[in-house]
Amino acid sequence: MDYTKDLLIKKAYAKPSLRQNIVNKGMICLYCDYSGFAVQNNYGIACCFVYNRTINVTSQKLQMEQDEGSNYGELQAILYSLEILAKALTEHQPKIAIIYTDCSSIAKILSRPYISHHYYEHARYEISASINHLKNRFPDVEVRVKYMSNHKKNNALHRLAHNAAREAAQTVDFSRFAIRKSAQL
């Protein structure tokens, strides 16, 4: 683990509101984030998984042809977190799982019956289907997606996800380079 991650984990343990999430055996918290650099066409998502004194941070580079906006990226980060949660629930049985996002319009996007932006509509459908699948498979676990609002301020766990998303977005994708190179030959 690098120094920045260690420092953020120490900060998380030092803050009572975060420490209670870290040590809780009845709740899984997933802090997700998206990072995009549209000019370079680089995008990344990440999730900081927190449960019973365990903190795992994972990230993934998004392959998108064009920038669909930060709300779409945040929806992708939520989907990524739901994949991680699905794997975790086969091993752990908490009472509740909360996916935290820093997207202030997430409640509107997830609750509206119709969204004119088809990318949002498709992502929202996937999120809803994933949550319903988890509810059917694990009926004793309540799954929620929640805007962090005040919980974001000085939140070291969200900062871990934020940093990992930025790092994933900025990684070089050599497979794209190899395709371009072979096409030139």
Description:
- This protein is 50% helix and 23% strand.
- It is α/β, with parallel strands linked by helices and 185 residues long.
- The chain has one domain: 2-Layer Sandwich (Nucleotidyltransferase, domain 5).
- A 5-stranded mixed β-sheet has the order 3-2-1-4-5, sandwiched between helices.
- A hairpin with a 4-residue loop joins strand 1 (27-37) and strand 2.
- The longest helix has 20 residues, at 70-89.
- The termini are far apart.
- The model is unreliable at 176-185 (pLDDT under 50).
Q: Quick one: how many beta strands?
A: 5
Shape: globular
Number of domains: 1
Write down the secondary-structure element order: HHEEEHEHHEHH
What is the average of the pLDDT values?
Answer: 86
Cα(first) to Cα(last) distance is 41 Å
- In terms of DSSP E residues, the strand content is 15-25%
Instruction: Identify low-pLDDT runs.
Output: 176-185
Supply Rg: 17 Å
Largest sheet: 5 strands, mixed
Structural class: alpha/beta
Count of helical segments? 7
Determine the CATH superfamily. Ribonuclease H-like superfamily/Ribonuclease H
Strand order of the largest sheet: 3-2-1-4-5
CATH class value: Alpha Beta
Residues in helix, %: 40-55%
